[in-house]
Amino acid sequence: SACLVGSEMCIRDSHSQAGLEIRLTYKMSQSLLQKHYAEKVVPALMEKFGYKNPHQVPAVKKIVLNSGFSATADKNHVQYVNDEIAKISGQRPVTTIAKLSISNFKLREGQPIGCKVTLRGVAMYNFLMRLINISLPCIRDFRGVPTRLDGQGNYTLGLNDHTIFPEVSAEGTNETIGMDVCINTSALSDDEGREL
Prior knowledge:
Structural class: alpha+beta
Number of helices: 4
Radius of gyration: 23 Å
Largest sheet: 5 strands, antiparallel
Oligomer: single chain
């Protein structure tokens, strides 16, 4: 029989005469960035903004990767964009379709016009760590990122070349995909979001 006590799992062998008991300790998988946030960022923000409860401290809730393409794009391009976004995020993207027909843009209702992925939890923290530590420094002539937020503590970063991510191979194609990386936080103001 097995029972769970706190973070320990005990397995008792009822068949043996000695009544053997084995205790296994386990820990939930946690990203390095998530660990850094819990150990260093939360206390620093509590001290700076005077929060009384750690649950008041702003946190990253989700990251949305969004990439659009031309309404006249062929099926191969749509599949290529979906595959590349899936490699970058580690999740299969949802293809977004047009809700309205707009003749000036040669757009018909129901046509695929982009794809998006929403990341939460460990996958979100892992992606954010790869973005900050590996991908952004790979941008040619990198001089930092814009510091403006949307007024509610959320941040959107536009990337015009997907080959900065190590998961994607730049060989064999001369096509680059642009995308938006939207970082959604629980911050109530831009100052809190920027500090986070």
